[in-house]
Specification:
By secondary structure, this protein is of the alpha+beta class. The chain has two domains: 6-73, no CATH class; 104-154, no CATH class. The protein is 28% helix and 19% strand. The strands form two sheets. Strands 3, 4, 5 and 6 form a four-stranded antiparallel beta sheet that branches. Helix 2 (32-42) packs antiparallel against helix 3 (52-73). The termini are far apart. The relative contact order is 0.09. The mean pLDDT is 77.
Length: 159
């Protein structure tokens, strides 16, 4: 026996069994959001894994969705009861996506330090991409130098 099947007694005393789906069909509830809310409200916290509060919150969310769906079916300025008119705001125009920025590549000013060049007091300075610095070249730290040692340029451009 399904947990949704319940036994009822008619006015003349006869017992009959009904499940929630039969009730929904008998009352011609066709909106899926309403169906979901009714199922949650009939047995909050008794259907298995979820507690009473969570079932009630989900039923509330389903009712809100059913209201949204009903409003969508009404004329533009109508309401559910038809008593007052609701002003609708015009839909905002979709924002244009900004043009993509060029991919930037970080270049570092590097110095080559070889023992014989240090003895001769000769140093070579060259720009390298951040990930492409050879082993015998070392980036010059920007903190200790007054010259610009890091550049960000669009891909394909060289310093």
């Amino acid at each position: 026996m399904s947990r949704y099947v319940k036994t009822f007694h008619s006015i003349d005393g006869q017992a009959f069994r009904v499940d929630v789906y039969s009730v929904l069909a008998a009352f011609n509830v066709t909106c899926p959001a309403r169906q979901h809310a009714i199922k949650k409200l009939l047995m909050p916290g008794q259907r298995g894994a979820k507690g009473e509060v969570q079932d009630l919150e989900e039923a509330s969310a389903s009712v809100s969705r059913a209201i949204d769906m009903a409003r969508a079916r009404l004329p533009e300025c109508g309401t559910l009861t038809g008593e007052t008119e609701v002003e609708t705001e015009p839909e905002p125009e979709p924002e244009l996506e900004p043009e993509p920025k060029p991919k930037l590549v970080t270049w570092r000013r590097c110095v080559r330090i070889l023992p014989w060049e240090v003895n001769e007091r000769t140093l070579y300075v060259k720009w390298y991409r951040s990930g492409d610095i050879p082993e015998d070249w070392y980036p010059i730290e920007a903190q200790s130098q007054p010259v610009e040692t890091i550049l960000q340029l669009p891909e394909g451009q060289r310093p």
